[in-house]
Write a sequence for this structure.
């Protein structure tokens, strides 16, 4: 693939690297097959937008198979129109796709009237205070940040645009402007993924057709567009992660191609900067840093270039220290002091418990445990470990229940094609137009669930087809070894493992779900390499 030196021979690639690349493709073939099968036979959804209780239904496979077959045929016709190489047409299609995403997101911002709610509203209010220089939220036990100090990064990010907005003297709430910023970030994420796809697309495929197929998949991704109205860390983190993957493809390409150190440095800085920003926006993106570290270690084994060690160390250090450093700066300026926050152990304990909305969903255990322990981390951890041991004992005594519990936890997150976008954006300030309101409380909600269910199955199937053809090509050695191409799917699988153990919510799956799209685009184009 284009991220590697095309002249590299398989015999010159270290055995471990070849094994890791081949094993990875077989493993993710199995992973994508499981996702495809479960999406074909089941759907997770909600009917009551206020209670947000997750329900399940068993799907008949034939309607799904028919719908997906129809969509694949439409993509075939799309290839007939857009499969021929044309730089002018490709640029035009890219431009129009970005315009569609931005316009639809902006229309939702204007007519959807969504407002931040729950944690999102608290974070927004703190950012408003910070924008005026009021740091009184940096206090002891009364502070939300003493429970969730990781939110300090997103508070800091929001404060500057809110400050600039308030300087205009408008009475319109700043969060409407923040939704427009999300639209720009969504377009930026698409641009980074588009150019990454140009680099990693196998030579056996028509790159023009693949990239245009990717753009079509993005435009059809309703949750992606609707999440631009969600003022929280999801869309900024998707943007930062997309940028980090793009700069990694540049960096690996330059290192493998033997470029001068000075030409490797800009892309190396991009990897470090955007990986750190992703964690700054959303701490769960540390899962991405782990995936990135795996890829960099593999590339180090292959190339033995010291600069990879430097990039790896700086990325890990910056990602781990950016939030603690930000907290220290706030504490130094305000004179206040924050507690260490709800413990990770309590999240794992909560992820093993029942909740009203679903298995492993938020039930307040982590918050209550930390509060009732008197903000004592050691005591909170002890209570959480005891709760974990209690649940493990119960799971051991009731294996049937255990299987049902984790099956529901899995399905509620990975078979929900909407990724909880209705629940996340349903709070409104009034004046929401009727067609959009019906998505939340009317008949359109059912149509949205059905559409997103079919779309999700298409994405999973496309990813499966990519890895199927990739495995076949690997056996025939038609492609150079390129482990770095797996970064996106390694990140996705890391999210899978993390949220099967951590607190569950299909919203948490949304940021990683976007990274299925490049693989799906390549997979859906495998049946036709070029059009004359």
């Amino acid at each position: 693939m284009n991220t590697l030196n095309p002249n590299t021979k398989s015999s010159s690639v270290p055995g471990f690297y070849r094994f890791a690349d081949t094993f990875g493709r077989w493993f993710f073939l199995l992973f994508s097959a499981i996702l495809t099968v479960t999406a074909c036979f089941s759907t997770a959804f909600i009917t009551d937008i206020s209670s947000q209780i997750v329900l399940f239904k068993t799907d008949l496979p034939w309607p799904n198979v028919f719908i997906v077959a129809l969509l694949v045929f439409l993509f075939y016709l799309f290839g007939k129109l857009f499969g021929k190489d044309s730089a002018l047409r490709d640029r035009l299609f890219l431009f129009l796709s970005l315009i569609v995403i931005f316009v639809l997101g902006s229309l939702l911002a204007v007519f959807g009237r969504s407002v931040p709610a729950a944690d999102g509203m608290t974070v927004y209010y703190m950012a408003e205070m910070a924008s005026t220089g009021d740091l009184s939220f940096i206090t002891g036990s009364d502070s939300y940040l003493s429970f969730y100090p990781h939110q300090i990064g997103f508070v800091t990010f929001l404060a500057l645009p809110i400050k600039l907005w308030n300087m205009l003297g408008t009475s319109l709430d700043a969060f409407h402007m923040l939704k427009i910023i999300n639209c720009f970030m969504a377009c930026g994420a698409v641009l980074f993924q588009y150019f990454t796809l140009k680099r990693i697309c196998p030579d056996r495929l028509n790159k023009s057709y693949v990239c245009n197929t990717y753009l079509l998949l993005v435009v059809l991704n309703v949750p992606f567009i609707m999440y631009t109205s969600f003022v929280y860390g999801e869309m900024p983190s998707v943007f930062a992660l997309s940028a980090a993957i793009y700069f990694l493809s540049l960096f690996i390409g330059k290192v493998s191609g033997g470029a001068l150190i000075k030409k490797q440095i800009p892309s190396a800085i991009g990897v470090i900067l955007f990986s750190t920003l992703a964690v700054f926006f959303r701490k769960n993106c540390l899962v991405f840093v782990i995936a990135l570290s795996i890829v960099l270690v593999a590339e180090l084994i292959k190339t033995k270039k010291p600069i990879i060690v430097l990039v790896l160390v700086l990325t890990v250090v910056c990602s781990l220290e950016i939030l603690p450093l930000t907290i220290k700066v706030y504490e130094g300026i305000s004179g206040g002091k924050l507690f260490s926050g709800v413990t990770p152990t309590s999240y794992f304990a909560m992820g093993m418990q029942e909740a009203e909305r679903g298995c492993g969903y938020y039930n307040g255990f982590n918050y209550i445990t930390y509060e009732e322990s008197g903000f004592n981390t050691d005591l909170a951890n002890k209570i959480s470990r005891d709760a974990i041991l209690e649940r493990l004992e119960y799971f051991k005594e009731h294996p049937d229940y255990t299987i049902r519990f984790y099956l529901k936890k899995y399905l509620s997150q990975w078979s929900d094609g909407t990724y909880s976008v209705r629940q996340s954006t349903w709070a409104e300030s009034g004046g929401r137009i009727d067609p959009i309101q019906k998505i939340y409380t009317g008949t359109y909600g059912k149509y949205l669930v059905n559409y997103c269910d079919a779309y999700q199955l298409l994405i999973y199937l496309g990813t499966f087809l990519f890895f199927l053809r990739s495995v076949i090509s690997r056996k025939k050695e038609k492609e150079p070894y390129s482990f770095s191409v797996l970064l996106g799917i390694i990140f996705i699988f890391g999210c899978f493992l993390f949220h099967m153990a951590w607190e569950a919510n299909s919203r948490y799956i949304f940021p990683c779900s976007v990274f299925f799209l490049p693989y799906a685009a390549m997979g859906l184009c495998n049946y036709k390499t070029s059009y004359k």
DSSP finds 23 helices and two strands in the chain. The first strand starts at residue 42 and ends at 45. The first helix runs from residue 15 to 41. The chain has one domain: 10-524.
